[in-house]
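Protein folds are increasingly written down as C-alpha cells. With that in mind, we are printing a sequence and the C-alpha cells encoding its fold.
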Amino acid sequence: MIPRFHCPAPLAPGALVELPETVGHHALRVLRMKSGDHLILFDGNGGEWRATLKLGAGGTAQALLGEFAAIERESPLQVTLAQALPAGDKMDWIVEKCVELGVAAIQPLAAKRSVMRLSPERMARRVAHWNAIARTACEQCGRNRVPAVMPVLDLPQYLGTAQAQNACRLLLEPQGEDTLRSLARPTAPVVVMVGPEGGWEDAERSAAHAAGFTVLRLGPRVLRTETAGMALLAALQALGGDF
C-alpha cells in the first residue's frame, strides 16, 4: 500500500509542499521512505493527491504533488457519537475505532459519573490529542475527510443543541425497551449517546428522554462504555450505511 498522510497545507497540482514535521518524521524515520517514493496526501476536505517524496534543505521532507483524485470513502449515514468521558485512555481507543467505522463526528460529554476530571487547559490538550488520533486513523483507513472531535460539553449543554438537530436520537441503556429491530431503517443523521462506566444518573436519563432520545439496548449483555458505541455504529452501518 502507498503510505497516506494528512497534510493541511494548500495543495495544488505541481506544487512542492513541505510536509508537517510529524509527517516527515514518520515518513523518513519510521517508514524509511526515500526520495522518489510515492505517497498520498489529503487535506481533510475531500479527495486525495498522488505525490512523490523529495528531500529539502536540511533533510526536511517535501512532496511534489501530482494528480488529484476526487475519491470519497464516507458513509451515506451520518452518525455522531456523543460519548461520556471514560476513565484512563479509553477515549483514545474509542476515537480511533469509531473513525475507522465511519463516524461523522464525536462529541465528548462530561457526565455526572464520568471519572475523568481535568482542568480546562488540560482538557483542551486532550481534545487536541483526540483530533490527532482521528487524523491518524483516517490515514490508516483511507478516509479523506477527518471527523471532528468537539470540545467537551456537559450533558445539559449538549442536550440543548441536540434537541434542535433533525436527527434520530438514540440513548444506549442495558435496560432499554427498544432494540434496533424495532426501529425503522435510519435515513436521517443519527446521534448515539453512550454513558460512562457507572452509567447515567436517573436525572440525566430523564433529561435525554425529554430531549427526544429513544432508549435503546444492544441485546441481553451489558457492554462496556468503550464497546457500546462501536457496536451500535457497526450495526447502523449494516442497516443504513455502507457495510
In short: Residues 120-141 form the longest helix (22 residues).
